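can u do me a favor
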């Protein structure tokens, strides 16, 4: 269904799942060449599309492009064949004029339409994808694909990518008169009349059919998708020629918060463009093509310290497999260099090369009423049966995400697919050719972790990553789930009633435990009991559940907000970050905030009484390359002061806090702990008030002495009155 450029070695057997809108779906990938490094320029574009007729199909035979070979003369509805883009999309591409402003180097394209590109000069067809649209981004013509994210080595391109995305920008195309494409297919009439469908408004409106009639083509607007612009980040680092794993040996990942676009038939694709530094792909155009020469008009000589004339003479030119005469230091007459010829293995069709992968079809569904407002984590299984050699460049079984952070009150959606048609010779446990997965909590730790002297139970550790033994269901405590859910995760029920379940052979290939609410905190280690032998080992996962609210998000050049459901969070403006920053926010309740501080060796020694919860922002460092971000926390009083600490011990007052609508908003560069308290100054006001009262009393006493000095009779009367008052109150004093 698409050109993967992976030598037909990837892919999983079955994969149809469903996800709720607003849930978090981790997207993992591996790429052979480096990203985020100087070795090469790389960009990854993540997109999805939905269509009523989109499907996986039941055969690996490519869908025909001749309708007569499909059932009912309709390839769009012939379910034997998998289909993403539809027949009309490819047909339009096949007869639409290609963009002749593009760089094609010295490649000889065999046609004038959009199915011919520098990477695909022969116009080879893969499914119904359009080669030109596959190879270039952003695309100038309407496409069925919606943008999710762009990851690039150069974030200065982000603004252009986002503004040109069809998520936010209307696109235009030429719609020819009815019958015009059939006219092109039959290739009748004078050659001058057989013009491909134009890609400009001026040329479009000159097309007529029947030729010479007043029935002309129309330049038609396709409205934007009305979606947010795609996220744009600095490409994550990966090592070249090591299957693309990122730092720490883990696959690179992007967390997609699934958009509210419900549909039962969707697919996701990730395109990966890899370019060398021999030329700038953003500014190199058709003017650099090899016209009248055997090589492209690119300045390769300056890259190796040669003049243009000397570079051409020595073969330092951009073409297929150039032969060069290298320049040696000390070789004054060039006698050595001219005798030594080196051929470089260069294929200009693969400079600026686009790889691709796509998912099986999946569904996006609206939330059930009981899930409104809930945070949903998708937990799936990746990989397939076989050892690392048999599955390469795919991978062995693992859980995705392998490590998950959640909070009490969040929901987890466990879901995965297996297969009955993997190659029979692939290593693995259970019936040959089948793959299955399950989830069982690992047995208790064999030794305590955490604070010395404390029992294991006090450390809230459930299971242990190093063990290979599952916990007994009767004693298992997993996320606070009911026992029936634990049974379902272990034996994949409801599904097959009894049968051979020791290795899950008779269990169904698909498992779904709809979102379940987490009700218990702790660190949970779990495993798949089937895939735990020598060849498929270590299918284990970890879920860390906090008692407090928490959220983690990667923020890049595009900026963004990391917010909790009650409006508290961190806001980063566009352009503040050159790279990416993982920002995690936590909310500690007032009731146990000081205990959490104490457990980290800290202490709260400022303020008088709480007026907010503790708001924690990680990392405890610059959040946006020295720029100020906005933080908002809920606060109970506009008289409260916000205090900040970066080490749990030393606290500083936050200045210029805006109090409005029960929210304290302020600008800061740093992460750390923030809390609202009544300031000590309120006590100072009381002391100042008492001091003023004392002064007033002293003034009154001084005035009374002066008064009674001048009027002794008044003093005698007052003294008698005071004695009478003393007698009347004596029994109460």
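np, heres the sequence
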């Amino acid at each position: 269904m698409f050109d993967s450029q992976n030598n037909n070695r990837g892919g999983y057997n079955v994969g149809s799942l469903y996800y709720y809108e607003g849930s978090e779906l981790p997207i993992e990938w591996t790429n052979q060449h480096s990203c985020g490094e100087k070795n090469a320029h790389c960009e990854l574009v993540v997109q999805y599309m939905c269509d009523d007729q989109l499907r996986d199909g039941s055969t690996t035979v490519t869908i025909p492009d001749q309708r007569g070979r499909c059932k009912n003369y309709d390839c769009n509805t012939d379910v034997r064949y998998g289909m993403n883009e539809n027949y009309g999309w490819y047909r339009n591409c096949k007869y639409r004029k290609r963009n002749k402003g593009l760089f094609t180097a010295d490649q000889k394209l065999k046609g004038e339409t959009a199915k011919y590109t520098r990477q695909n000069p022969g116009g080879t067809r893969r499914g119904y994808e359009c080669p030109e649209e596959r190879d270039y981004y952003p695309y100038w013509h309407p496409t069925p694909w919606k943008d999710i994210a762009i990851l690039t080595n150069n974030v200065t391109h982000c603004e252009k990518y986002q503004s040109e995305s069809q998520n936010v920008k209307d696109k235009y195309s030429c719609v020819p008169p009815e019958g015009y494409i059939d006219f092109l297919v039959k290739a009748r009439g004078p050659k001058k009349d057989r013009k491909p469908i134009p890609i400009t408004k001026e040329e479009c409106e000159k097309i007529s059919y029947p030729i010479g009639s007043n029935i002309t083509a129309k330049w038609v607007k396709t409205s934007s998708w009305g979606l947010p612009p795609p996220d744009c980040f600095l490409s994550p680092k990966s090592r070249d020629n090591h299957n693309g794993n990122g730092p720490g040996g883990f696959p690179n990942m992007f967390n997609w918060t699934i958009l509210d676009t419900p549909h039962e038939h969707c697919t996701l694709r990730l395109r990966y463009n890899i370019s060398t530094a021999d030329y700038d792909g953003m500014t190199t155009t058709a003017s650099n093509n090899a016209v009248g020469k055997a090589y492209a008009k690119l300045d390769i000589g300056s890259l190796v310290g040669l003049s243009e004339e000397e570079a051409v003479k020595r073969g330092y030119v951009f073409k297929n497999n150039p032969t060069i005469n290298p320049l040696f230091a000390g070789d004054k007459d060039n006698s050595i260099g001219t005798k030594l010829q080196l051929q470089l293995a260069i294929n200009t069709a693969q400079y600026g090369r686009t790889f691709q992968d796509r998912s099986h079809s999946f569904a996006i569904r609206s939330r059930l009423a009981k899930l409104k407002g809930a945070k949903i984590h998708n937990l799936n299984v990746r990989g397939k049966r076989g050892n690392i050699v048999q599955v390469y460049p795919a991978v062995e079984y693992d859980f995705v995400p392998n490590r998950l952070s959640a909070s009490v009150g969040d929901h987890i959606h466990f879901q995965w697919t297996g297969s009955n048609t993997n190659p029979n010779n692939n290593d693995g446990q259970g019936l040959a050719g089948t793959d299955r997965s399950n989830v069982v909590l690992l047995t208790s730790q064999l030794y305590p972790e955490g604070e010395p002297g404390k029992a294991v139970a006090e450390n809230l550790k459930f299971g242990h990553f190093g063990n290979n033994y599952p916990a007994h269901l009767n004693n298992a405590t997993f996320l606070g789930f009911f026992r029936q859910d634990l049974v379902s995760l272990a034996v994949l029920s409801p599904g097959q009633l009894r049968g051979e379940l020791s290795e899950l052979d008779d269990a169904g290939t698909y498992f779904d435990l709809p979102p379940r609410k987490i009700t218990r905190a702790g660190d949970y280690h779990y495993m798949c009991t089937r895939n735990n032998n020598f060849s498929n080992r270590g299918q284990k996962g970890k879920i860390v559940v906090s008692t407090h609210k928490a959220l983690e998000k990667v923020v890049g050049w595009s900026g963004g907000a990391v917010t909790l459901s009650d409006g508290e969070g961190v806001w980063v403006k566009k352009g503040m970050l050159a790279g990416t920053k993982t920002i995690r926010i936590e909310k500690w309740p007032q009731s146990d905030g000081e205990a959490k501080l104490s457990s980290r060796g800290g202490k709260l020694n400022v303020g008088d009484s709480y007026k907010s919860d503790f708001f924690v922002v990680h990392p405890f460092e610059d959040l946006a390359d020295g720029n100020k971000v906005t933080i908002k926390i809920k606060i109970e009083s506009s008289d409260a002061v916000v205090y900040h600490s970066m080490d749990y011990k030393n606290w500083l007052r936050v200045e210029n806090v805006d109090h409005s609508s029960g929210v304290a908003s302020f600008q800061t560069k740093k992460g750390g702990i923030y809390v609202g308290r009544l300031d000590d100054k309120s006590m100072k006001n009381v002391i100042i008030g008492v001091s003023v009262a004392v002064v007033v009393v002293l003034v009154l006493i001084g005035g009374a002495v002066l008064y009674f000095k001048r009027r002794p009779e008044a003093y005698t009367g007052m003294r008698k009155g005071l004695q009478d008052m003393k007698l009347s109150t004596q029994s109460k004093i």
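The CA atoms of residues 452 and 459 lie 10 Å apart. hope that helps!!
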